[in-house]
Amino acid sequence: xxxxxxxxxxxxxxxxxxxxxxxxxxxxxxxxxxxxxxxxxxxxxxxxxxxxxxxxxxxxxxxxxxxxxxxxxxxxxxxxxxxxxxxxxxxxxxxxxxxxxxxxxxxxxxxxxxxxxxxxxxxx
Length: 124
Description:
Blueprint: H1 3-7, E1 12-15, E2 22-25, E3 33-35, E4 42-44, H2 80-123
Antiparallel strand pairs: 1-2, 3-4
């Protein structure tokens, strides 16, 4: 058994803030940023959890904590880079449609020319 494998810290699990997908990265990638594989929103992996040191003294009585106000989740908003990608794709699709239409018009005109010349040739 490899002794270095036992020393590896556990992977860091976290959720995407946009779509809620649970992600897991190796501890060596803590603090790195990248796109979410599900919604392509830009996310940053959190720092690895601290050692098992208690950050607050343990009390025998429950302590009521004040909750910090959370920013409301904005559903339905699309990241700006996604909008740019969608616009680019729409422009590419419309350009492709125009090319096909132009090819159809050229082919139609060629057929008309052939019919015109065949009519003259057959008439003589």
